[in-house]
Design brief:
The chain is of the alpha+beta class. It contains five helices and eleven strands, in the order H-E-E-E-E-H-H-H-E-H-E-E-E-E-E-E. The chain has a five-stranded mixed beta sheet. Strand 6 and strand 7 form a beta hairpin. Helix 1 crosses helix 3. The longest helix is centred in the middle third of the chain and has 26 residues. The two termini are 27 Å apart.
Length: 248
């Protein structure tokens, strides 16, 4: 089930993901001071580095499917695949939605909350032409990311934005800004990942493994009850997990 969830929620592969039972707290980077040259035999003054605590709790995410006796009598392999697609797939899609848009209030927190506000010319770029970025604006966006995060940085958008607005872009030399290498797509040298839950014409750029932390405090599990569907001559299958995510 977890592998199916990662197929329908590919962002699970892009964040810092844990599988620790119960609530737990981890320390992430806060303020980082620069190193300095030390004068021989002199007292070393401690840097003003800080750490930030990220506490991951848990939200129950569940899906109930009632299956007729006829469907239940399918071949074992086919029926198991049906359950994986129906239960694991739908739970995965909801988790991916939260990983992008979750506001952290009675639900997991997602990438949209990486900043309290997204400010043009500071940590974001507002396209000058409605819904259509230029190559120069993408370069501006890249420039706002602090350099130490660049080695792991990726672009995140939905397929519509990529194929209708980004794929056809050219720079001032009329050279394509997208390079396709097999299944991999590179935008100005950075990998592109996709999620259907990113709004149209919106791009996120950053190292998501250093931005978002998630935890399955309880892995997905499936329970079955013949009593729940007794009056319908059916069997009820319930898949559930306990998951939380936070911006670090």
């Amino acid at each position: 089930f977890l592998e199916k969830m990662k197929q329908t929620a590919p962002l699970l592969n892009e964040i810092n993901l844990f599988r620790v039972p119960g609530n737990f707290t981890i320390a992430v980077e806060g303020t980082r001071a620069a190193a300095a040259i030390h004068t021989e035999n002199a007292l070393i003054t401690a840097a003003d580095d800080t750490t930030t605590a990220v506490t991951l709790g848990g939200y129950e995410i569940a899906k109930l499917a009632r299956v007729s006796k006829i469907v239940q009598k399918m071949g074992v392999a086919e029926f198991e695949q049906f359950l994986v697609n129906t239960l694991g797939g739908d739970i995965g899609r909801l988790i991916e939605n939260y990983l992008v848009t979750g506001n952290g209030t009675n639900q997991p927190e997602g990438i949209e909350q990486a900043y309290t506000t997204w400010t043009n010319n500071t940590n974001g770029v507002q396209w000058a032409s409605s819904n259509t970025p230029t190559a120069a604006e993408l370069m501006e966006l890249i420039g706002y990311l602090e350099g130490s995060y660049a080695p792991g940085a990726k672009f995140l958008m939905n397929h519509k934005t990529f194929w209708t607005k980004i794929m056809t872009l050219r720079d001032d030399s009329k050279y394509p800004v997208v390079n396709i290498d097999g299944a991999a797509k590179l935008l100005m040298g950075f990998p592109v990942i996709f999620s259907s839950y990113v709004p149209d014409y919106t791009l996120y750029f950053g190292d998501f493994k250093k931005a978002v932390y998630g935890n399955f405090s309880e892995d997905i599990n499936v329970a079955v009850s013949e009593h729940a569907g007794f009056n319908y001559n059916s069997v009820a299958y319930r898949a559930s997990c306990i998951f939380d995510s936070k911006v670090g």
